[in-house]
Amino acid sequence: MGSEPLGGELRGMGRWYPAAWRCAVIVPSAVLAPLAVPGPATVVAAVVVICWSGVELTFFRHRPEKVLAVDVALVVAVCLTAPLTSSFEALVDATSWVVVVASITIVCCQPYTRMVAGTVAAACMTSAFVLGGWFAEPQRAVETVPLACWLFAEGLLCRWLYWLLRRGARIADDLTEEMSARRTEASAAAALRAGRREHLAALHDTAAATLLMVGLGVPSRTWVRRQAARDLRVLRGVDVADPSADLRTLLAEVCGDVAVFVPPDGGAPVNSGQAEAVTGATAEALANVARHAGGVTARVTLTGCARSGFTVRIEDHGKGFDPGAVHEQKRGVSESIIGRMAAVGGTATIQSAVGHGTTVTLRLPGTAGERVEAPRMVTGLRHAVLGLSAAGLFGVYLPPLLLSGRPSVTEMAAFALMAAALGAAAVRIWRGHRGFPWLSLLVVLIADVIVVVVVPTSALIGHSNWAYPAGGMLGVVLLIDRGLPPLTGFLVLHNVVSLVPVFVDGGPERAVALGTWAIIVMGLEIGIAGIAIALLGVRARAAAAVAEQDRLRTREVVHTQLAADRRARYAELAETVVPLLGGLAANRLDPSAPAVRQACAREAGRLRRLFAEADDVAEPLLHELRACADVAARRGIGVSLAVCGTSFELSAQERRALTDPVLAVLAAATGDSRIAVTVMADSVTVSVVAEVPPGAEFVMGSRDEGWGAARLGWRRRGSSVWLEATLDRPSP
C-alpha cells in the first residue's frame, strides 16, 4: 500500500490525545484533593501534578516517549505518599484522587508505547498503588489488590482498544487504497470517454459544419478561409488543458459580446473536462441563437458554488422551436449540448416553444469533499468498549456484590437487567443493527433507579454502586456512533438518576467524595467518547489526504491518456480532413469547384459517421448508414434505406469498409438514391444506387479491387451508378 491516511492520522492522534485526556481528568481531581484531605502535603502534591499536566500537554506531541518515565515516576510518588494525601477508605472505594491519577495515567500511556514498555509501566504504577496502601494500613493492604488488578486490566483493555483501532485503520486504508485505484481507473476511463465525446462535439461544431456548408455550396470564399483556419487550430489543439479552471472567466471569453451574469462571491472552480463541456455547450447554444432565433440577444447567467454545483442558463426570446420535432441525426443539441454535459456527469435541458424563445440550462454536479468512511475502525472501538463493559460488570462488580451478603432479590434483578442490556448491545454490534437503542437505554436507566432505591446511600459512592460505572459505559457502547448530542444527553440523565439522590441524602460534606468518584467513572467514559469524536476529525483529514492523492494520480493518468488519445485521433484525421481544411484555409482550393464540394461532402459524411460510431445502438451499421444519408439529405437528395435480414456483429473498421463506398457515391450524387442492406448467413452486403454525373469520381481503385476488408462491385448505366460492398463473415 502506497500510503496510510487513516493509520497516519490515528498515530498522530495517539501522540496528542492521551495528554489532553489525562489533563482533563487529573486536573479537576487534583483541585478537589485538598478539600478531601486538607494539609500541606496534599496541596504540594496536587500543585505538582497540575503543573506537570500543563507542561505535558504543551510538549507531549513532540516527544511523547520521553515523558513516560516522568509520568511513571510522578504516579509512583503520588501512590507512595497516599497515606499523607488520602484516606485508606477512599483508596479502597476508588474515591481518592490518587486512584484518578493512577488509573488515567495507566490508560493514557498505552497508545504511544510499545507492548513491553506499556505493560511494565502499568505494573510499576499498580505495584506502587498497593505499596502505598500498605504504608497507610499494613494490616488491610490486601484490600487494595482487587482495585490494583482492575487498574492493570484496564490498561491492558485500553491497549487492546487502541490495537483494534489501529487494525481497523490498516484494513480501512487497504480498502481505501483499493477503492482509490479503482476510482482512478474509472475516472480516467470516464475522462477518456468525455474527452472523446468532447472531441467529437468540437468536430461537429467546427470541421463537420464547415465541410458540410462547403458541400452544400452555401458560404463565401472568405468565410470558408476564415472558418477552415479556425477549425485547423481546434483540431491541432491536442495538448490537454490545465486540470482546473475558473468557469466565470472561460464563459466571459466564449460569450464575447454577450453579457454573462455571475454571482458576486468568489470564482467558479471546475476541472478542465467540465470547463470544456460547459463552454462548448454554451458556445453551441449561442451559435443556435445567432442562426435561428431571429436576431435577438441572448442572456447567459451563472449561479451556484463549488460545493452545491454550478448552473449556466442561456436564454433568448426569439422564434423558438419544438424540441420533439428535431431529427435524431441533428446533433447540434443532442451531442454538442446534451451529450457534452452528460459526458462530465452534468445535465442539459432545453425548454422551447415556437414563438416563445428558448432556454438552455446546463448543470454541473457539486464538488463536496469525499468522505472516507472507516466502519471497521468504529466497530473496533465499539468492540473494545464492549469488552471493557463486560470485564467491569462481571469481573469487577459481580464478585464483590455476591460476596458482600448485601444484595437483595431486587438488586440482583437490576443486575440481570444490566447484563441483559449488555447482551443486547453485543447482539446489535454483531448483527449491525442501525436503529436507535431506545429499549436498551431504558433498561439501563431502570437498573439505575432500582439500585438507587434499594442500596443504602452510604454504599452508593464507590465500587459498591456497580450500576453507575456499568450503566455509563454501556451507554457509551450503545451511542458511540450516534454523535455527541445523544451520548451527552444520556450521560447527563444517567448522572442525574445515579448521583443526585446521593448528594441530597449525603449532604454537602460528601460532595468532594462524590465529585472524585464521578471524575473516576466519567473520565474513562468521556475519554472514549472523545476518541469517537476525534475519529471524525481523523476521518475528515484522511478524506482530504485521499482526495488529494486521487486528484494527483488521476490527473497524471488522465493527462497521459487524453494527450495520447487526442494525438491518435488527430493522426486519424490528418490524412483526410486536415489536408482539405488546410487547402481551404490557404486558398489553394476553390470551395465553389464541384470536385472540392464533393470532397467536402464526402468528408462531412465521414465525420457524421464518426459521431454515429460513438452512439450505443442496437444496429450500429444501419445507424451509421443513416448518418451518411443525412449529409445527402441536407443537399436536397432523397435517400431511402431497405434492410433484409439481421446484421451480425461487426467491428468499427469492418463497418467503415461497408459505408465508405456509400459515402463516396452519395457525395457525388445529384438525384435521389437508394441504399439496401442484405444480410446472409455468411456475409453482409451494402449496395447503393444513385444518379451520378458522368465523369464524377466516387471510388478509388479498379472495379475488382477491395475497399478495406470489403469486396467491391460496381457499374454505371448512363447517369445511374450501382455499387455494392460485400463483407464475408469470418468462420467460427
Summarize the structure.
This protein is an alpha+beta fold and 732 residues long. It has 22 helices and twelve strands. The protein has a five-stranded mixed beta sheet. It has a five-stranded mixed beta sheet with strand order 8-9-10-12-11, with helices on one face. A two-stranded antiparallel ribbon has the order 1-3.
Indicate the topology.
Blueprint: H1 5-36, H2 40-59, H3 68-80, H4 82-85, H5 88-93, H6 97-108, H7 115-136, H8 145-216, H9 221-236, E1 244-246, H10 247-255, E2 260-261, E3 269-271, H11 272-292, E4 299-305, E5 309-316, H12 331-343, E6 347-352, E7 358-364, H13 375-403, H14 409-431, H15 438-454, H16 467-479, H17 484-506, H18 511-574, H19 577-585, H20 594-613, H21 620-634, E8 639-644, H22 652-668, E9 673-679, E10 683-691, E11 711-717, E12 720-728
Parallel strand pairs: 2-4, 8-9
Antiparallel strand pairs: 1-3, 4-5, 5-7, 6-7, 9-10, 10-12, 11-12
Helix pairs in contact: 1-2, 1-6, 1-8, 1-18, 3-6, 3-7, 6-7, 6-8, 6-18, 7-8, 8-9, 8-11, 8-12, 8-13, 8-18, 8-20, 9-19, 10-11, 11-12, 13-14, 13-16, 14-15, 14-16, 15-16, 15-17, 16-17, 16-18, 17-18, 20-21, 20-22, 21-22
Largest sheet: 5 strands, mixed
The N- to C-terminal Cα distance equals: 44 Å
- How many helical stretches? 22
Describe the global form: elongated
Strand content: 5-15%
Structural class: alpha+beta
The percent of residues in helical segments reads 55-70%
- Average pLDDT taken over every residue: 78
Number of strands: 12
Query: What is the rounded Rg?
Result: 40 Å
As laid out across the biggest beta sheet, the strand order is 2-4-5-7-6
Oligomer: single chain
Low-confidence runs: 238-243, 368-375, 700-707
